[in-house]
Amino acid sequence: MTATRIDVPAADESTQEYWDAARRGVLLIKRCAACTRPHFYPRPFCPYCWSTHVHWEEASGRAVLYTYSIVRRNDLAPFTDRVPYVAAIVDLAEGPRAMTDIVEVGLDDVHIGMELQATFVEIAPEVTVPMFRPA
């Protein structure tokens, strides 16, 4: 018996297009047709007005670091092999905030307000996750 990996996102009907785009190196967000507000994480309704008239939109991939934490210890497999890593919340250029990891940066170089660019990291076969690196 094999344990289910907890670090690999599972696509479903409402997020499959997002994960397919990530594998192509494209970051998608959703925008509401009713109130026009963008939102992230992908979901089949608007978190502001509850409309189900939402559509995919290609994001620029630009962001600014809002806050972060350097994770130096994580006893949960498979995260143990990743430490230290930078867990972060970024402000996407389009407006929404997103949880992510900051990669390709020295831990001493991370700072709030730094400009970032999306990069796409394959974490398992057929699973690519958007993360961010310094712009």
Would you kindly provide a written description of the structure presented here, covering whatever features stand out?
By secondary structure, this protein is mainly β. The protein has one domain. Helix content is 6%, strand content 40%. It is built from one helix and eight strands. The chain has one helix at 16-23, and strands at residues 28-32, 38-39, 54-58, 62-71, 85-92, 97-102, 115-124, 127-134. The strands form two sheets. A five-stranded antiparallel beta sheet has the order 6-5-4-7-8, covered by helices on one side. β1 and β2 (38-39) form a beta hairpin. It is globular, with a radius of gyration of 16 Å. The chain starts with 15 loop residues before the first helix and ends with a strand. The model has no long low-confidence stretch (mean pLDDT 92).
